[in-house]
Fold:
Amino acid sequence: MNSATTLPDAASAPVRAPRLLGLYLLLIIIAAIEAFEGLSHAPMLFGDMSEIPGPGLGGAIIKAHIASHPVLALAALGFATVGRLRYAIMALGALVLMNWLNYMPSVVRHGLDFGGLSALQTPVQIIAFPLMGACAIALAARKERLGLATLLVSMPTLFDVLAVIAFGISVLLYGF
Structure:
């Protein structure tokens, strides 16, 4: 029998990566939350532009963030839905970096606020989250540690969701 007609042995068979269903589901949930948030702010672009604070470069950065947020979130949702884990991570990483860029006009204008609750929130949003987003993009681009990259791009959204829940609980307990 000719070796060309025999079945390939196990060593030459392509190795398939296991389906990482949990990562896909987490990315779909995070992207859906971000898409909802981005789409809820998108009407600001079609209304009175004086509502968007800051003329010049700061205002342009904020407008770019409002315009790109739903696009990046929907792209991440689409990529995660069709099984393109790396691209979904990169889109969410870009979204994290755009969120950071959105804070920069306020930081330049008012400085860093470390009083009260901002003592926790400011360093996390200005320093930790952009580093996490950049690291997640680098890991996804290199096809390394996609679970860690998924966790890194999910943390900012989960942080925001927990902040909203904590605010809601405090309003229920103490009133507005």
About this structure: The chain has a mean pLDDT of 80. The two ends are 83 Å apart (CA to CA). Residues 75 and 91 are 7 Å apart (CA to CA).
